[in-house]
Give the backbone structure.
Amino acid sequence: MDAVKVGLLGLGTVGGGTATVLIRNADEIKARLGRGIEICHVAGLDIASQTIVDPATTKLTEDAFEVVNDPEVEIVVELIGGYTLAKDLVMKAIENGKHVVTANKALIATHGPEIMKAATEQGVSVCYEAAVAGGIPIIKAMREGLAANKIQWIAGIINGTGNFILTEMRDKGRDFADVLREAQELGYAEADPTFDVEGIDAAHKLTILASLAFGIELQFEKTYTEGISKITTEDVNHAEELGYRIKHLGITRKTDKGIELRVHPTLIPEKRLIANVDGVMNAVLVQGDAVGPTLYYGAGAGAEPTASAVVADIIDTVRTIDAPLHHKVPLLGFQSNAMRDTPVLPIEDVETAYYLRMEAEDKPGVLAEVSETFAKHSISIEAVLQKEPASGESSVHLIMLTQKCVESSVNHAIKVVEGLDSVKGEVVRIRMEHLD
């Protein structure tokens, strides 16, 4: 059989890795497929100076639209990132009847409904394994491996930069700003780290996982997002004393009221496997009704780990390239006419447990006063840790762990506690999950 012709948009970190893997492992891929995959057209910046693909056999251009309009190209691989240009290129490729492979989580999370609708109408595939958790095949697991299950919840460490920062803060007692600078020097964080440390990157990925898990539309705008920039070494250490670790988690859960969709720092018991995922590694824990909990662990970024997922998508596309769309795995795991309109819960309606830290006067009755305030708002205290005051200080750090309660109740209670004469400043609140 003739080789399938691929057009590559972007020859940066992931694009270069993808080209490298396709060329280096060409014989292995052909042995699995029964036909080859050929990179026939590549678009990139400063394309003339690249040394990865052979210009004698591959067309090179700085105009990406030349690739998506090339009649030879059967599969367009979009690896330039961003929203606007990437969307225009993907939509044009679909209009031209070409299959699409992308690693662009922002594109899928924000423009996915429009892209999937166009692809369905044209009868072409859109594959996006590399958009979530880099080299971990979590999309394939959700769409295929766990298809027999009703997914109950997902909790994931899906941003390596944030996980690296929290690991360094815990292991070496460093503060957030110090570790962030090192992450930027090592290339783990961008010069503007907002997407990573404020949870936007993880929210894009969680939006995709929630759609695959529960058959709901992609709804990035409804994902509650909170970053790690306010986490202190003090809270990291207190969590350790109480038997927990702080991780920046993406959590989605199906409840009787709707779907939880939230990214935020989270205390989880140190005995959980996911609590011991450190550094830049990613992990996704999925709870299914039949299989129970399954954990997927690996490199969430990097040239070749991400390229592994991109090339796997190209291979999957080639395997069914001539099959009608109804014979393929649905683009979002569920048939398009079976997607559900289950509501996404606002964060105020979410029920979870909490870690609360406050500075209180060191005198009798304060703990009872604070506890009584929470009790009036139907919040039960599970554990209390009171630190000794520093020499010459008249206040102490009071740490409380609550049982599960509704977020709106905690918000009201915190406002009352902050107004007490015995409590100074703001109450620090970090959500807590046991992942049972």
Notes: The chain has a mean pLDDT of 96. Residues 359 and 382 are 19 Å apart (CA to CA). The first helix runs from residue 13 to 24.
